Amino acid sequence: MRALIISNPKSGTSETMLGEVIGTIESLYEEITIKKTQEVGDALRFSSESGPFDHLIVIGGDGTLNEVVNGLMTLEREERPTVGIIPAGTCNDFARALELPIQPTQAANVIKSKHTQQVDVIQVDEMYALNFVGIGLIADTSRQIDPDEKESLGSIGYFLATIRQFREADPFEIRLYRKDELLYEGDVSFLYIGNGSYLGTVPTKLETQSFSDGLLEVVHSSSIGFPMIRQLLAQQLGLDQKSPEWNHFQASHVKVELSQSQIIDIDGEHFESEQLSIQIRKNAITFLTP
Q: Same domain for 65 and 198?
């Protein structure tokens, strides 16, 4: 077997961590190739050339993993190697969703177990994601987080940014379609379209959540301020979540039309758009899991 390791030193990966991982898994492979990222786009390029390998091992955070997924999706399904994750970022949301250990050696032992799980991938126009697409409050929170807070406080920094954005969130107008059926038209404070089960280290706790059912989880809300905080707390505490201002449904394909251009967040990557076509690619990538 052959393995390609993509390591992102900027996400906190040290030579010691890399050595621990290699020492744990080296007996599995006849050949291990190591690629270290230096700039944005490296992980995408490396993964797009990973077809000859059996396993692709990612040492990094959610941003590195997002690039890897976009690179893998340029390959034919049968050419994509099985992916192992060694979490090394701030949030590691998708690693949490797969219930992977955060400690590097323990995560590497998961690779040795060879247990796999096929996972759906979100396609957003010509881009791909594992976790979520966010507009409004979600996108504003991740974009406005203070870099020093992220570095020193980790996931708490995301919580502080969310609280700040609650005070400043402005509703925006959308038209939301399930395939060609108009489901909602009006103002919302946020739109979440997800596949993963964590957002900024916080579990989404959607009852229908699944990585491999071929369906997106779509949540939107028109509430702002205290009503939104109350609803989010109710969701996290497992209380009654019914609210006329809070809507959740599933779909394999949704279209979003915005009255004006908005910041779109795809797994932490940002761009502006007035419309999106979002669909699920069922069982597109295989991961090594506990």
A: no
In a domain, 122, yes or no: no
pTM to 2 decimals?
0.86
Q: Mapping DSSP to helix (H, G, I), strand (E, B) and coil, where does residue 9 land?
A: helix
Task: Using alpha carbons only, give the angle 103, 160, 129 rounded to the nearest 5 degrees.
Answer: 60
Tens-place pLDDT, residues 65-79: 999 999 999 999 999
Cα 64 to Cα 11: distance, rounded to the nearest angstrom: 8
> 6 has which bridge partners?
35, 58
Which stretches of the chain are DSSP H helices?
15-25, 42-48, 62-72, 93-97, 104-113, 137-144, 147-153, 155-168, 226-236
Q: Which residue in 49, 207, 269, 274 is the catalytic one?
A: 269
Residue 170's Cβ-count burial label (10 Å; 0-12, 13-18, 19+) is exposed
What is the widest separation between alpha-carbon atoms in the chain? 58
Report the phi/psi class of residue 276: left, alpha or beta, with left for phi > 0 and alpha for psi in -120 to 50.
beta
Domain limits for position 277: 127-282
Based on the residue annotation, tell me whether 269 is a catalytic residue of this protein: yes
Domain shared by 107 and 192, yes or no: no
